[in-house]
Structures are given as structure tokens and as C-alpha cells.
Amino acid sequence: MVESGIMVVRAERRPRRLGDARREASLGSWYRDAAMHSRWDDAEARRLEGLDLLVYASRLIGAETSLVVWGGGNTSIKTIERDHRGREVQVLRVKGSGSDLKSVQRKDFPGVRMDDILALLERDDMGDTEMVSYLAHGLLDSGGTRPSIETLLHGFLPSHAVIHTHADAIVSLTNNDHHRDVFAEVYGKDVITLPYRRPGFRISRDVADALRGHPDATALVLERHGTITWGATVRDAYDATLELVTRAEEAIAARKRGRPVFGGPRVPMREGAARRAAALAAAPRLRGALSRTRRVIVTFDDSPPILEFVSSAHGPRLSQIGPATPDHTIYTKRLPCVVALEGRETGESLVAAIEGAVERFVADYTRYVDANRFEGAELGDPRPRVVLLPGLGMFTAGRDRRTTGIVNDIYRHTIDVIGGASAFGEYVSLSARDAFDVEYWPLELYKLTLAPPEKELARRIALVTGGASGIGRAVARRLAAEGAHVVVADLDEVGARKTADEIIAAVGAGRALGVGMDVTREDSVSAGLGETVLAYGGLDLLVSNAGIAHSCPVERLSLADWERSFAVNARGHFLVAREAMRILTAQGLGGALVFVATKNVMSPGKDFAAYSAAKAAEAQLAKVLALEGAPHGIRSNIVNPDAVFHDSKLWSEDVRRERAAAQGIPVTELEEFYRKRNLLGVRILPEDVAEAVLFLASDRSAKTTGCTITVDGGVKDAFPR
Ligand SMILES: [Zn+2]
After folding, report:
1. Separation CA 33–CA 25 (nearest Å)
2. Is 196 a residue of the active site?
3. Which residue among 56, 411, 611, 674 is the active-site one?
4. Can you list the residues of the chain whose pLDDT is less than 70?
């Protein structure tokens, strides 16, 4: 209950928190309680004013994902500021294009002069390009963020604060074939609704005209699009949004209660382990099929709300009607790809069904573009972003893990909207032409171009074994810095997660994953590669690096120590490479294997038999893989480092002592001994090895396979030959 008296909050056993409704929905129940509760904190808000208060309220709106999908929605205030000459001018501060409400900052709100905006009320229509350039001229500060393409929706309304969302609940009310009756029942005459029109000048004009005709309206709804609410204060506009949405959520909840949504299950939902096995078999082939133009990252989701929808009697058909709002189209495309499954397919029959569905999607999508194309529109990547598998779950595709998360989130909201709309009647959507106009709208495409240019290893997935320390950690960081998604595998699971967390802190969420992996065990290796595939869809680069050292003369060497060295330094590389080859060949996108071996392969040292012999096996394996991988475009190369002490677990105290003894020097002089031994007289650091690995893992070495690069400062006996 808030002082304005318009919020209705039900008595509950515990206070609700942000995201509760989503968590409850993900527990598998389709019934969602009306959940839109105020998150306004008076104590915090009281300290803020003007633009700071708007930023605060915008973040509250953005944090509730059922109000706006990523990047969607916008907010504004009208305020008095001083221009470059010190004159007081009325300014609209409105969210800029390409920022996201939940993390929006002051700088994301460009100021547009109100007199420039109001002058446009004289006009009947205006082209998009002209409008964008006109608004750019009206900016208080030149340069900086481009104002939202929905700026005029805000500027044409007289109120101080305006909020525009794409609330799921409201869209559910408009996207059904009984929406007129539904609106009259829920809102009476308080709320104006306007038929769908693409964002731009005309819809802003319509909104201004409609309000002039109904000055008592409390809110305005754009059909198949979203809400517009306003107030004399930011708080009033925020409360008005919540009241509008709460009434819609309550109406939906009342209609849904006790009804099976989507007609109940059609296809049996497989149990968790079977779903995981099927997804593992399917993902690399799917990623290959979706990456024919450019590689994509692919993420699997089989959470209960997804499974319920894809496995239901009506879900797959309803999914082919269209997007919930124009905003959804940008990330998910107009339609998802539905794979025709009966719930029992496995292995090849599953993969064939998926590949067939993707092929049909491409043909249909190309037809849709041809039928609706306007001058200057070029066919984009015709492959799906969302793939629905009855009985199994959903795959989403995108340029990186963050994007697959956004696509996933947007499709979850689409499912919510379809479910809500179906409670009132038959779900309806934008026409194919309207969806196309938004998907290929130059102003929307502009938003996507705001992302920085892609790095060399963008869209690639790398797995680095022994990634918790030393060379492995340096390699993982280096590949991530060049844009790769990196799975850090190590026997030391805590260390692997720590390296992954460091990478995420440096390059962004979703870009690294830490997994525990014992490379000597088949089940552990296949589990680690499985996690990689479920998180990212496949693999492009393997850096097989995990190793151990043991120093002892042969006559005293125990069989156990010999076999332990072979287990890690030979079998480990075999197991990891075998699993990687299976994924790489299934994808059909080529790939690179890089084996971190040792200078000892070329130039063995005494008392180092177990280590050198096993590492020689690794090097031979790498060369055979160059032969076997070549027909698939898979390259296999070797890096031979020497004496990399820094951050190394391989150079344990024991190994240092034993190697010093073998060289006949005090242990304190060991590092210096190795430095002086090489031609350049340099210390070798993990970062030096990482540079060589990057070269061999990237397309910089696209025409090199079966090769060995030394990173040892120059050791004559160890020159490759
Ligand atoms: Zn909008």
C-alpha cells in the first residue's frame, strides 16, 4: 500500500522480492500470482531529484524483466536546464538508444530541446531518417548518445514524467482475438488503446491526438507493443505503470486459475539425464548447422516452463503465430524453429530431425524476406535464433553467451505472453509485414551496431586443461582477451573457478566457465566437455595443457610413478583430445588443437624418463591428430616450453630439488641455471607460452598443422627437426 492509494498489495506470509514471480514460474507452475509490487524505497528516493530520480525509477522498471526485455522500454522527464550560452531552456531527458533500463546511468539520457520537439506537433508525418537527424539537431549537448527512437512518444505528452514499457501482462491483454472486450472489462474507459503501428513519428502523433481527445485517461496502451503512463512526478508515473500492470496481471491470474495452459502435454517429457544426453548429442550438430555464415554460441535450457510449452498440445502451433512485440523480433527473429519430435528420438534420428527443421526454417525465412523486402533491405543470416524441441527443451543462439541469455530471456517472456493471451482467446501477433518492417528497420539495426567490433576469437569456444595455474591460466586469460569463450578445466576445481571468475571480471559475464576435471578419467573428461557443450553449444579450440613432472633415475623409478606420469602426460591428452575430436567433427566447422608439450620431447634430460617418455607420446599423438584432423579442417600443433617456473604447480618443491640434483647445482640456483642455459639468456614466463598458443589456436596460423613451436629462449639441442 502506498500513499497515492493506487497500489493494491495482497496480504502475504512473507514480503515478495524482485523476481519472485519468475522464480515461481520456473518451478513449473503455470499459475502466476499477480506480482507487480512497488519496489520504490522512500528513504532512497528522497535523497534524489531530477535526472537522478529518473535514473533510480528507470532501474526499478528495468529490474522487473516482465516489464521490459533487454534494451526495451524508455523513460523521460521534462526539466529546465541551461544551454551552452547559459540560457534557461526546457529539455526532455529521455533514455538513449542502445542502453538497458536496469543498468541505465545519467549519461544514457541525452537532453533534447522541448521547443524543437513541440514544433513537430504541427506536422502530420515525418520519415525515420529525417526524424533522427532532426532530433540530433535538437540535442542540448552535441555528440553523445542518440535519443531513443521513441523520443517523440515522450516529448508530445505534456506531463513531467513519462514511462514506456513492454509489459508482458499488458501485451497478453492486447495479443488475443478478444482484446477489445478484455480491455473494457479490465480498465473500463480509463485506459486508451491504440491499434498497432510501428514505432516512429506517426504513432507519437496518434498518442498525442488520442490524449487530447481523452484528457481524463490515466494510461495508454499500444496494442502488440506496450504501455505509456505519466505523472506530475516520477513517482506518480512509476505508480501508474504498476497499477496498470497489476490490474492486467490479476485479470490474467483469475482467468488462468485451474486451466491447463497450452492444452496440456502432448509429448512425454523425458527425465533429466535423458534430456541432457539428447541435448549433448544434438548441440554440436545444431551449432554446426547454425554457424554456416558465422559461428554462433548455442545455449540449452530445459527448465520447467520451457519444457511445458514445447511439449504441450498447442505450444508449437502457437509459437508460429508471431512475436509478442516488435522489440522481441530484433533478438529472436519473428518465429522460432520448431523441431517435429515425438519425444522418443535419439542419436541420428534426433539430429536428422533438427537439421531438417533448420533447413525448412531457412527456406521459410528466405521466403518471408523476399515477400516483405523493401528497397535496400538485405537478407540477414536466415538461421533461427530459437530452436524448440518437444520433450527436450530449447536452444538459443547468438554472437556470445550474453546474447544467447538475452534471446533465452526474451523467448521466456514470449511464452508468458502467449500463455497470458491464451487465457482470453486465440493468441494474435504482428503481421509478417509488420514484423519484417521492425526486424529490418534501419533504426533498429542501428541499435545492434552500437556494440564494439568483434575480436579475433569472438564466437569461438576454447577449453584449456590445467587452467587453474601457470601456463594454463595465462593461456585461458590470453584467449579470453582475444574474445574467446573459455572453459577452464583443472583437477583443482576451486582454482579453475577462480581463474574463470577472474576472466569474467575482466571481459564480462558468461565468457568463462570453471570445471573440475581429472584428465586421467574418462567419465571426468566427458563430463567436463559435456558442461562445455551445454553452456556454449560446442568447441572450437582445445589447449591440452594439464601435466605433472617427476624426476628420478630409471633404476630407482617405481612402476607407480612411471604409470602416474603416463596417466596424466599421455592418457590425459588422449582422453581430452578424443572427446574434443568427436565434438569438432560433429560440428563440421574445423578447429584447432594445441598441445603444450616440453623441450624434453626434443632434448630429454637425465632422471626425467617418466616425464619425457610420456610427453613424447603426447607429441606423437598431436602429430597423428594433424593427419586425422586435416580432412575436417582441424589443425593440431605443439608448443614446447622450457623451465616456466612462475605460478607453476609442475615445478613442485620436490621436482625443483630433484632437477637441481640432476644438474649438480644448489636448488636456489635452479631458475638462474635454466635462464643461462638458453641462447637468449631469458626467463620464460607463462605469458610467453600463451602468445605461442594464441598463434596456433587462431586463424593467424590457419595454414599450419603438425608443427612444433619452441618457447625456450633457444636451446640448440631442442631445435625441432
Ligand atoms: Zn516500445
Report:
1. 9
2. no
3. 611
4. 1-36, 444, 447-448
